Amino acid sequence: MKLHKEGFKIIPLVLAIVAVINLFVFIFTGKSLLFFVLLVASTALMGMVTWFFRDPETRKSAQPNQVLSVSDGVIVVIEPTLEREYFHDERIQVSTFMSATNVHINHVPIEGEIVYQKHHKGRFMPAYIAKSSEENERCTTVIRTPGGEEILIRQIAGIMARRIVTYKKTGEKVSLADELGFIRFGSRVDVFFPKTASIHVEMNQKMRGGVTVLGTLNQPK
């Protein structure tokens, strides 16, 4: 199993903490029942943390103007929404909720140029509720396609997610082969489409980041 680069920052830290705790318990209790229970629990914890940072192979491809899912997860919102940060008008919002069991890599959904990006400090409410989109810790990125259309991606922290990483910055050209970022331990991603776009997913549908087609950008008539 391939590990994502974010895992190489966290896994050694967790391993060191677990090792120290186990060592102290062994020193004070020896080969006690408490020590063996802790050892089993620690091994399970390390397995879960390592599995969380898995990086499965993803073959990305899309037709022109197709927008791929940014992340794995489940669709929790498809609705017209007033986007207040960048567009200041009504857009189609499509939101994907990532549980702790999902792969948390965030993929670039369409090729183009990043024309806007801003990180907002905020709260850590459950990511599946509506107001988390505007009140939680989050990072907003806007990609302008070669055809001039713009989509907005909002990475949102959740009750467990305390770290949003965004690899691409304003002014950079991006393609489907790129990763947009990573969110640790349960979170949500909102994608805002133009009202002329066709949406190809439905509520509660499971997503595969970089694979599932969320929608198509249709040029206004």
Question: What is the topology?
Answer:
Elements: H1 7-29, H2 33-52, E1 66-68, E2 73-83, E3 89-98, E4 105-107, E5 112-120, H3 132-135, E6 138-144, E7 150-157, E8 164-166, E9 173-174, E10 179-183, E11 187-193, E12 198-199, E13 206-207, E14 213-216
Helix pairs in contact: 1-2
Question: What can you see in these coordinates?
Answer:
The structure is a single chain. The protein is α+β, with helices and mostly antiparallel strands. The chain has 2 domains: about 5-50; about 65-215, Glucose Permease (Domain IIA), CATH 2.70.70. It has 3 helices and 14 strands. The strands form 3 sheets. It has an 8-stranded antiparallel beta sheet. It has a 3-stranded antiparallel beta sheet with strand order 1-14-12, with no helix packed on it. About 35% of the residues are buried.
CATH topology of the largest domain: Glucose Permease (Domain IIA)
Q: List how many beta strands DSSP finds.
A: 14
Low-pLDDT windows of residues: none
Q: What is the helix content?
A: 10-25%
Number of helices: 3
CATH homologous superfamily title of the largest domain: Glucose Permease (Domain IIA)
Q: What is the average of the pLDDT values?
A: 87
- Structural domains: how many: 2
Rg over C-alpha atoms, rounded to the nearest angstrom:
20 Å
**How do the strands line up in the largest sheet?**
9-5-6-7-11-3-2-13
Shape: elongated
Largest beta sheet, briefly?
8 strands, antiparallel
The secondary structure category is: alpha+beta
- Please name the CATH architecture of the largest domain: Distorted Sandwich
Approximately what portion of the residues adopt beta-strand conformation? Answer: 25-35%
CATH class of the largest domain: Mainly Beta
Helix and strand sequence: HHEEEEEHEEEEEEEEE
Please give the alpha-carbon distance between the first and last residues. Answer: 47 Å
